[in-house]
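Working notes for the structural subgroup meeting. M.R. asked for a predicted model of this chain before we commit to crystallization trials. I am recording the input and output together here so anyone reviewing the notebook later can reproduce the run.

Input as submitted:
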Amino acid sequence: MPELPEVEALRAFLDTHLVGKEIARVLPVAVSVLKTYDPPLSAVEVTAVGRHGKFLDLTTGGPAGELHLLIHLARAGWLRWQDPLPSGPPRPGKGPLALRTALTGGDGFDLTEAGTTRRLAVHLVHDPQEVPGVARLGPDPLDEDFGPERFAALLAGERRRIKGALRDQGLIAGIGNAYSDEILHAAKTSPFKPTRNLTPEETAALWTAMRTTLREAVERSHGLAAGRLKAEKKSGLRVHGRTGEPCPVCGDTIREVSFSDSSLQYCPTCQTGGKILADRRMSRFLT
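Returned structure, recorded in token form:
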């Protein structure tokens, strides 16, 4: 799933490739992708590319005034830049193509989604706050005013495990399954430690780990073409997706806890005092 660093890198890429260009047409291919479409988007100029958490925001200007094309790539979506775009119209079918955006110069981008679960979402609105997913977002963890005191205040009102708190988009925007694993590993914190049990020192360490992990990931992705971002993300992860490999910090074996539709990875030595977390499907968590 693309998270804050990858979406921020896509924003920077599109800012270079889209701003000042004119959208000729937007062609939905998958019926499920377009959530709101008012008014139709054609013959408009892209004036800015922004980001709200994991949402890309393409701001356009034209006869209908300012519009926002908001894109949420969800778990299996991606953006593929094409120069030039294929000349023929896209054909609906069982392939991954979900939506095509064509520019007047002949280039543009495709939105694709792998698998059979269709969660990729595109909204065309006058105001980003019209999209419920944007309206409910918490603060961006890389904003300059999101300091350790504000982070501590947010966690102080929580009564759940820290892994779930970090992933809650309504609490903090942009962090998903992969980077929450990375942040917790960097902070030497168990993913299932209750937020109410965090000491002030542990909370401060989490804030530092969050900022450092996300900023380093953004820096690694800076300047990369859209097609290289997935590989860059995977190569930069230390524990997530690396079950059975040695921890790069201590050498212990990275372990996994599985859920019905996802999993997390952690290092017992670095994060849980050597304890192995039990699989939720079989027994209770150890914290």
